[in-house]
Amino acid sequence: MALKVPAAPFTFVVHALGLVGLILVLVWTIHFRGGFAWEDSNKNLIFNLHPLLMLIGFIVLGGEAIISYKSLPLSKDVKKLIHLVLHAIALVLGIVGIYTAFKYHNESGIANLYSLHSWLGIGVIVLYAIQWLYGFLTFFFPGGSAYLRSESLPWHVVFGIFIYVLAVTTATLGFLEKLTFLQNSGLAKYGSEAFLVNFTAILTVLFGTFVLLSVASQGPSSADDYSYSAI
Ligand code: HEM
Questions:
Q1: 3-218: which CATH architecture?
Q2: Which of the seven top EC classes does this enzyme belong to (predicted)?
Q3: Is 50 close to ligand 1, i.e. is its CB under 6 Å away?
């Protein structure tokens, strides 16, 4: 069910939006929220690592990994390697990013896992890890039979898109939740920081949208990309 348009323009928008998203989250966490720390008496600096690592990991690198088959004019094997390595980096950043949220809560005496955002977040990381492991074992090493791979590929694609959409949803809920906490503690509702956080969340949604458009359109060598051995 591919769109009959080339993926390249969509993939360029993905790269550009990823860069802008990274800049926006850095401006927010450094300029408005005081920067980062692993150990500090100001526990907010530990929390700031959470949105940064989640955005770079699950959203930007996860999205780039998904579109690697559509954005790179390389051989299938190289694209497969790039796909799995980008997803592995995304997963590691996601694990460290979620750890920083727990670390911030534990060191500040705040309860864990009380919000919809955190529940969906646990769902995302668990599904992401299962998806990566199954993909690695089936399509890379040791690799399943030709039959298993061709049967698995459509499920891998559908689950991968589902998990990615869930990650984008979870990230936007995170921005909403943090901004609501800040506004309830006195942050101006129409102030520049509130606009910045809302725009970063909108940009996250747009980034995800262009990832999906890239997936649905025609890559450099679409005939190869749809065969089971492409992943
Ligand atoms: C896909 C990306 C994300 C995932 C998977 C995720 C996951 C999680 C998880 C599992 C927790 C629970 C930590 C605990 O209970 O100790 C959490 C906490 C939190 N996250 Fe995220 N997060 C993501 C992105 C973001 C973003 C972009 C923000 C924006 C600021 C954010 C804001 C928060 C806040 C405010 C908390 C503490 C309150 C709460 O537990 O709900 N998250 N996140």
A1: Up-down Bundle (1.20)
A2: translocase
A3: yes
